[in-house]
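TL;DR need C-alpha cells for one chain.
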Amino acid sequence: MKRHYMNYFYLKMDTHYFDVPYYPGTKRRVRVLLPKDYDREDWASYPVVYMHDGQNVFYSKESYSGHSWKVIPTIKNNKDLPKMIIVGIDNDGLRRLDEYSPWVTDAHQNTEVTGIGGDGIHYGEWVVNVIKPFIDEHYRTLPDKNNTILAGSSMGGIITAYMGAKYPDVFGVLGVFSLASWFSEPDFLRFIEHHPLHEDTKVYIQVGTIEGDAIDQQFIDGHMNQEYIDVSIRYYDMLHQTGFPNHQSWLRIMANERHTEQAWANHFLEFLRFGYGLDQQPGLSSRKIYM
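>> reply
TL;DR here they are.
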C-alpha cells in the first residue's frame, strides 16, 4: 500500500490505496486530512468524519461539478469547531451507482439502467471492517460512535443512511444530503423501518427544491424536484415512526437550492455544528424544516 503526504495551509493530508475485495483487482484512494498541529499535539485524539465521493470533498479542480465541499477552508475559518480528522473515500467512478446502493434499483425508464445497484452492502462492510479499523490503528482517533461521523450526498446519501442504520454502534452522526433514495425507495424504507437508530444518534438531512436533472429522468418519469423533497420527508418520518426522538434530527428543505457540491458545501458547517452540539436548534414537536 502506497502512502503519500501533502500539506495544505496548516493541514497535513495522507493518501492511502486499498484493495477493494468486491471489485477484484482494483484499488481505492482514501485520503486523511489531519487537524492543525496533529504531529505536535501527540497527546490528543480526535473525532473522525468519514465522507463518500472523496474526489469531491477537498479540491474543486478534482470535483465532478468543479466545486468541492470546501472542507479545508471550513475547518480553517471556523476555529470554534473541535479539531477533527476528515477521511475522504473515493467513489469507484463508473460503478458508483452500484456501490452506493445496497439494493438493485426498481426505478428505471429504459433498459440501460436496469439492474444497477446492489453492491452497497459490500461497500459498507469494507468501510466498517477495513477502512475504519485502519484509521483507528494508524491515527489518534476517538473511535466510539459519538465521535464517528458519516456524510454523503445523493447516492452517497443513500449509503450514509443505510450504513447508519446497519451499523448503529459505529456511527453516531449522519449527514444525509440530497437523498436519492427514490433509486430503490421501497427497499430503503423497509430497511430503515426494521433497523432503528440509537436514541442518541444525530441525523442531519438537507435537500433543495430544484434538485432534479436530466440524468434522473432515466430512472423516474416524474417531477424529480418534488421527488427529492418527498423522499427526504419520508426518510425523516420513517426515522420517527421507529421511535427516534425528534430533537435528534434536523430536516433542512432549502428553497431554490440545486443538486450540487456548492449547495452541500454551503451547509457543511451547520451540519458539523449540529453534529458536535455547538448549535442548539429551537425545539419543535414537528419536523424541523427551515427555508
